[in-house]
Amino acid sequence: MISKKTPKETQKKSGQKGKEKEKESYTAKDIYVLKGLEPVRKRPGMYIGSTGQDGLHHLIWECVDNSLDEAIAGYCRNIEVYLLPGNRIKTVDDGRGIPVDKHPQTKKSALETVMTTLHAGAKFGGKAYQVAGGLHGVGVSVVCALSKYMRVEVCRGKVKYSQEYSRGEVKTKLKKEGSCSGTGTTIIFEPDPEIFKSVEFSLKKILKHLRQQAYLTPKTNITVYDERSQPSFSYSFYFEGGLKSYIKYLLGGAKPRHQNTFYVKGERDGVLVEVALQYAKEMECFEQGFANNIFTGEGGMHITGFRMALTRTLNDYARKNGYLKEKDENLSGNDVREGLVAVISVKIKEPQFEGQTKARLGNPEAKVAVDAVFSDGFSRFLDKNPQDAKSIIESCLLSARARKAAKAARTTVLRKGILEGLSLPGKLADCSSKKPEESELYIVEGDSAGGSGKMGRDRRFQAILPLKGKILNVERARLDRILSSQEIKALIIALGTAISQDFDIKKLRYHRIIIMTDADVDGAHIRTLLLTLFFRYFKEVIERGYLYIAQPPLYKIQFGKRVEYAYTEADKEEIVSSIVAQRKTRKTNGQEPSSPEGKEKTQQISIQRYKGLGEMNPQELWETTMNPENRILLKVTIEDAQEADHIFDILMGKEVFPRKKFIQAHAKKVKNLDI
């Protein structure tokens, strides 16, 4: 029923709304001022990036950064990190110790000021530290704010001091606890479970980060102790060689293209620059940048300066020494970076990081300094080591030729698609929906599984693309050869995004791309080849969360009219145990006669092991693997892109030794190996 209002009624109603608005006034008293460390607890993501695993471990990095600053300044030689029971962390250093005397501005001890005040620290004045990682001045106070429990112990002037905090507030006064030898700071903290999604620390993540720091801070001993279970574990890092040692570690078992590792250290306009590099066979570009020992995962001005200088210097050398003729075009940035393993580290007095998590360096002077120091040092290196220079230049020229060939092949593929009206491959059974956000593409193994998938799917939103056999291993092939593969070409056209420089994620035709292969060794190999293809050439598909792996069942278990599917061995055991328990109950209640002596408990239970998707009829495939209400999908993610890149190089590249070494090192950790 629709009711009509008279003008007076409307006016009356309007007047009532006006009075309500007056009551909801917005005045000064409505402005809430957060005090002390409240802003950190209110918006933790602004200070540590997230409340997930990265943010949780960022608390450790902030504490260790302070110790590393002492080491860089020459006052600390030993740093220890303990993983304690109850999700507690303890960091210990033998630096000068945080001052404990009264602060002239806050009238509190310097220790309490540092622990409970944002933007408070010796790094702002420029006298105590020439360079430091935690120059935002919020580091350890943020740890204090986001910890359920925190205790700091300081050893200065042969006296041990301590103070405790909780959620950014002081819980005990600063007190003397007796005498001590030497100097240093100990911090113990327990992350607040009210803030973080999980408070469980990853030993692997900690070791990786601290290994980096040990390479970047030569002659500093960093030891990790895991005391969460017995027997306890300890691991120490100590490197004399600094960045040159780090390059050797990053290369792993890969073969270097030249004998000598390049290294330069220099200073320009107050910016200290260190660069080390080596070219390797069968590796993608692997660059790591650091500013004041902070890993800048998103690069920044120091990386820009390095890349500019690298391209210019190699082109200059190639022309001067006849590798490039007058008519030849210059080597591109991609040409000179293929196979490159490089570490670029700068120490700068006032770094401008984008965000507290320091993912990108913004200082323009860093670009100028790196360009100057690196180009000068690298030019001398090439002149002094002509054999190394020849190997590097020839590698870059090979990359340039491959790039041109790939461009020609890519143009041919795209031109052919245009002439055919961008027709989709004939083997693709497309869905009727044209909306990417609701469309799915199943990439399946073989025509048999493809046939079952086509018959069992929901045609409205599910498309099926069967692939014949194992696709080309793209880790071992250049783009021109990749584009000659009919199976890969069909997949590229089906996705709609094109590839390489022409890739456009906006043209992706499906927002769920599901790899569906058999649960055997061949199926796992095909899945790995497809993952390699997506990681190398369609990485944004993974980054946006569009790539999945289907989980078809391993077993069909039938008992009478009861039919269930087991996706793992554990599922199978649980289902069989449930059936056996059900039979026992029925026997006890007199509903089923007892089995003769010696007969197995699982008699009459039918267990079918699926070797391939083609063994399922269309209805079974739909119910178990394709029905959104029942299916299990694993989303493919990239937690650490550089680490993933390195692993793909090892496992899928041409070099056998690195793969053999990796398998030997990780053999005991393998799970779910299908034999």
Summarize the SSE layout with pairings.
Blueprint: H1 7-23, H2 38-42, H3 45-48, H4 53-72, E1 78-84, E2 88-93, H5 110-116, H6 139-145, E3 147-156, E4 159-166, E5 169-170, E6 175-179, E7 184-191, H7 203-216, E8 221-226, E9 233-237, H8 243-251, E10 262-268, E11 271-279, E12 286-291, E13 294-295, H9 301-320, H10 333-337, E14 340-347, H11 364-384, H12 386-419, E15 440-445, H13 446-456, E16 462-467, H14 479-482, H15 486-495, E17 512-516, H16 521-537, H17 539-543, E18 547-550, E19 555-559, E20 562-566, H18 569-588, E21 606-609, H19 618-626, E22 633-635, H20 641-652, H21 656-666
Helix pairs in contact: 4-6, 4-7, 9-11, 13-19
How much strand content do the residues show? 15-25%
Helix-and-strand structural type: alpha+beta
The chain-level mean pLDDT equals 83
For the record, what CATH class of the largest domain applies? Alpha Beta
What would you give as the CATH superfamily of the largest domain? Histidine kinase-like ATPase, C-terminal domain
CATH topology of the largest domain: Heat Shock Protein 90
Tertiary shape: flat
Q: State the helicity in percent bands.
A: 25-40%
Number of domains: 4
Overall radius of gyration: 31 Å
Beta-strand segment tally: 22
Q: Give the N-to-C terminal Cα separation.
A: 70 Å
Q: Pick out the low-confidence regions.
A: 1-14, 17-23, 25-34, 124-128, 133-137, 596-602, 666-675
CATH architecture of the largest domain: 2-Layer Sandwich
